[in-house]
Design brief:
It is built from 24 helices and 28 strands. It is α+β, with helices and mostly antiparallel strands and about 900 residues long.
Length: about 900
């Protein structure tokens, strides 16, 4: 019980002039009155009355210990018979009984002065001080004025009953306090259970949504009316606050709760803020509570609660509940944020995967396009392949236009998924060809080299593209929905345009499509350029072949009569040895010259190592000597000393003698060229366990260390003098390496440095026969007499060959042009016609055709005897009707075999 709630004292105070009771009846009445007191103030008043009555009307002051409430003081003044005395009661906040020393308890009457110091100066006038003890503890004092004469027996009964009543009141008060506390605990438990139930339900509700706004809506709905009359939830968005949710106890509130300042303060401070604001138009005061939605890393927003009425205020319990509710909402918001981030990350990953797959698909497509475009070396076919690649991968249709040398725009390809629209594109280019100076469309792309894209084609766009009404009608019939035109670049020059169209599929061109189309056009331009370069190379190669063929023809023509003349000189001659040696040298060099002409006809064959070897059993010593003879003119011209060291026993190899002679001659010439006059050149040969080794050394300028590794590469040379005195084409050592490797051998170069000379070693594998004798030369067989016609515009070659064949016993005729040869063949009726192809008036091929066209002349054998020896020349001669194709200078053994075959056929 608080001080303000203390009971007023009753007014029926007995008179102070009443005599003290002397009978037992009065004592029983006092006891009964004290016993009926049910409260501490009532007990204090009754005790004061009873003591005053027992003291004969003297003033009485009673102090009773009220525990936590303090000390209750009741005073009764001296009884006045004429005036009704009034009792005075008061509560003191601090109870003096809790501070009295225990030494005061035994004899309080002796320590009145010290007790008075505790209880106030009014006690100093007391005649007696009566203690009240409950269970040995001092719980009250009774002070009686000095003018009273209390009755000891009656006072004893009164104080005893007061003590008993105080004990009973203590028990009652304890029971009441226990009951009150129990009820408070029950109420608190119910409130806690309700709070926990509310929070549990709120947690379940807030856990369902996965978006921020949905969670805010549920939070606002839960907060009203449990926590407030209205609720607003604001979230930060783009440097401002956005109202994400609102709720109100009324279905349609009269006024909207604007973003209050308290919400902004709570958001900035991240703390709970409360505020009392006056209502509008003199309305009731509004109580506001702003609770920030603080997450782990940042604040999601702020919840603002409002109490509309003046009777409701936010209690600490409301604040605690709002904080707990917000905590659950924050957990849901954090989960929603994480879910949203996961969704965004998944979407980003999926988008990245799509982009990566699209990029990979584009790369595969471009790689496939490069393969297809590079598979052809025809420019027109490349552009047609380009149109085929685009449809339907990038577009529904594609047309390719090319800029001709005269400045005209020509269509070279048209492809569409609908064949009729592909035909319409052809008709467009034929009936309405583009003018190069037209300001839009394909002409502008050809002029500027800048792509044009119409994502959506409208009628106005078609009207701008059309150059005439008829062109406009055909464009509309083509029905383009999206257009893309990219330039076709070749060597920094626009040579064409590729136009892609979507029509009927609903697709539209994007920037990515434009990038792919431009990349594809660039690859196509590169392929077209490669095709052009290949065509130019083919043309150059054709001209080179024609030149080499003509050169070989002109070189072979003079060699043929030389070879035949040597054969005539050798037949039947038993002259001196020097004359016979000269004949052999001429014949050998003629053959060598013919072999070199054969190599000249196919340089690519030489560089690729495709030279055909003609192996035969050859003596090593003779081979080396012939190579020395080939190089001797240069060696003697530079006054070199040459040393030749060969095994004494003859060594026989299975090699191409001309090629090995060429290898040694090249090495000897190389040594002679790069050695100062009067130097030393040596050639040595020795037998190995599994082959032979040929060594050519010199005392010349040597080879630098950096050049040793590349000395056998094509066109590689040491620095030469400005007068090219040591010059060459740089192919000699390359040819040496290839020829040696064709024989299965190897070649190496050594040098100790500049000015220290060089050494080249050639190792040839294979079995070597030592000490064997040379096989006797089988005499050339003579064919039986045949009728032979020689047709050649080279008079010397024709006549000397006819003279040789006459010595073999054949009947001969000679002609020097095609017409004369045709007439001689028809009149002479020869068995064999040795016919040159390059004839005046009528070439040999045409002569052969006309002879084959004559009836009854199937027995005539036509032999092409010409300086043209390429594979194409052989194919053309056989197609014209020739039976044999021999190149000049003809090998006489081969000619004998041909004549023998003709003789055998005739005999049969």
């Amino acid at each position: 019980m608080s001080i303000a709630e203390s009971e007023p004292l009753p007014a029926d105070v007995p008179s102070a002039s009443s005599p003290p009771p002397a009978s037992a009846q009065e004592i029983l009445s006092d006891v009964e009155r004290l016993w009926k007191a049910r409260t501490l103030p009532a007990l204090a008043l009754e005790l004061a009355r009873c003591v005053q009555s027992a003291a004969g009307g003297a003033w009485v002051r009673v102090w009773l210990d009220g525990g936590e409430e303090g000390t209750l003081e009741v005073s009764l003044p001296t009884a006045d018979l004429e005036a009704e005395p009034r009792a005075h009661s008061a509560w003191h906040l601090r109870s003096p009984f809790s501070r009295l020393p225990a030494a005061l308890d035994p004899e309080v009457e002796r320590d009145v002065e010290r007790a008075c110091e505790r209880l106030g100066p009014a006690v100093g006038d007391a005649g007696s001080m009566l203690p009240l003890r409950v269970e040995g503890a001092l719980t009250g004092l009774v002070a009686v004025g000095p003018e009273g004469t209390p009755e000891p027996r009656r006072l004893e009964w009164i104080l005893g009953q007061a003590v008993q009543t105080l004990g009973a009141l203590g028990v009652s008060r304890a029971l009441e306090e226990a009951h009150r506390r129990a009820e408070e605990e029950v109420r608190e438990r119910c409130r806690a259970e309700a709070r926990l139930g509310f929070l549990a339900e709120a947690g379940e509700i807030l856990a369902v949504p996965v978006s921020q706004d949905a969670i805010c809506q549920e939070l606002a709905r839960i907060a009203v009316p449990r926590l407030a009359d209205r609720c607003l939830i604001h979230v930060p968005e783009r440097h401002a606050l956005r109202c994400a949710a609102r709720s109100h106890t009324q279905a349609d509130p009269d006024e909207e709760l604007e973003t209050p300042q308290v919400a902004i303060e709570a958001l900035r401070s991240r703390r709970i803020v409360t505020r009392e604001t006056p209502g509008k138009d003199g309305g009731p005061t509004r109580s506001l509570l702003a609770v920030p939605l603080n997450g782990r890393d940042f604040t999601h927003g702020v919840m603002t609660l409002g109490m509309d009425g003046s009777t409701r205020r936010f209690e600490p319990e409301d604040v605690s509940l709002a904080r707990a509710l917000v905590h659950r909402a924050v957990l849901a918001l954090d989960k929603a944020r994480l879910y949203s981030e996961a969704q965004r990350a998944r979407a980003a990953a999926e988008q990245e995967s799509l982009v990566r797959r699209a990029a990979e698909e584009r790369q595969r497509f471009l790689a496939e396009a490069s393969r297809v475009l590079s598979s052809s070396l025809d420019a027109q076919e490349i552009l047609r392949n380009l149109a085929q690649l685009v449809v339907p991968r990038l577009a529904d249709g594609c047309v390719v236009d090319q800029l001709s040398a005269g400045g005209r725009i020509e269509r070279v390809a048209s492809v569409h998924q609908a064949p009729d629209r592909a035909e319409l594109a052809w008709e467009l280019s034929e009936q309405h060809p583009h003018s190069l100076d037209w300001p839009v469309g394909i002409p502008r792309v050809l002029r500027t080299g800048i792509s044009e894209r119409l994502t959506v084609v409208r009628d106005s766009d078609l009207d701008a593209l059309a150059e005439s009404p008829g062109h406009q009608r055909m464009l509309r019939d083509w029905k383009p929905e999206s257009l893309l035109t990219v330039p076709l670049w070749v060597r920094a020059r626009v040579v064409g345009a590729v136009t892609l169209v979507h029509s009927g599929s609903g697709r539209h061109f994007s920037r990515a499509d434009q990038a792919v189309a431009e990349d594809l056009a660039g690859r196509a331009g590169l392929a077209v350029e490669n095709a052009r370069l290949y065509a130019d190379l083919q043309e150059e190669d054709r001209r080179k072949d024609e030149f080499l063929a003509m050169l070989a023809h002109e070189l072979r023509n003079p060699l043929a009569p030389v070879q035949v003349a040597v054969e005539l000189l050798q037949q039947g001659r038993q002259g001196n040895p020097s004359e016979l040696h000269a004949h052999e040298v001429i014949a050998r060099q003629t053959r060598h010259m013919a072999r070199l002409v054969d190599d000249l006809l196919d340089l690519s064959r030489i560089t690729r190592g495709k030279i055909e070897l003609r192996r035969e059993r050859t003596q090593l010593q003779g081979l080396v000597r012939r190579a020395v003879d080939l190089a001797r003119p240069l060696i003697e011209a530079k006054r070199h000393h040459i040393e030749v060291e060969l095994p004494e026993a003859p060594l026989w190899l299975e090699v191409d003698p001309v090629r090995i002679e060429q290898v040694l001659a090249n090495l000897l010439n190389n040594a002679a060229k790069y050695t100062e006059s009067g130097g030393r050149v040596a050639v040595r040969a020795r037998q190995l366990e599994n082959g032979v080794e040929l060594e050519v050394s010199d005392s010349g300028i040597g080879i630098t260390l950096g050049m040793l590794s590349g000395v056998f590469e094509l066109f590689v040379q040491e620095k030469r003098a400005s007068d090219r005195s040591q010059g060459g084409l740089g192919i000699g050592l390359t040819l040496v390496k290839q020829l040696v490797e064709l024989h299965g051998g190897e070649v190496s170069a050594e040098s100790e440095g500049v000015g220290r000379g060089s050494v080249f070693r050639v190792r040839l594998p294979g079995p070597v026969e030592a000490g064997a004798q040379a096989l006797p030369v089988e005499p050339r067989r003579q064919s039986k007499a045949l009728k032979v016609l020689v047709v050649d515009d080279n008079v010397d070659a024709a006549e000397i060959l006819a003279e040789l064949l006459e010595t073999w016993g054949h009947e001969m005729r000679v002609a020097h042009d095609g017409v004369e040869g045709l007439e001689a063949a028809l009149s002479f009726r020869p068995d064999v016609v040795l016919l040159d192809i390059g004839l005046p008036r009528l070439d040999g091929l045409e002569v052969a055709r006309r002879l084959r066209a004559q009836p009854g002349d199937t027995h005539m054998v036509l032999v092409a005897l010409t300086g043209y020896g390429q594979s194409g020349d052989r194919a053309r001669s056989l197609e014209a009707g020739f039976d044999y194709h021999l190149t000049k200078p003809v090998d006489l053994d081969t000619l004998v075999r041909v004549l023998d075959e003709v003789r055998v056929v005739e005999v049969a």
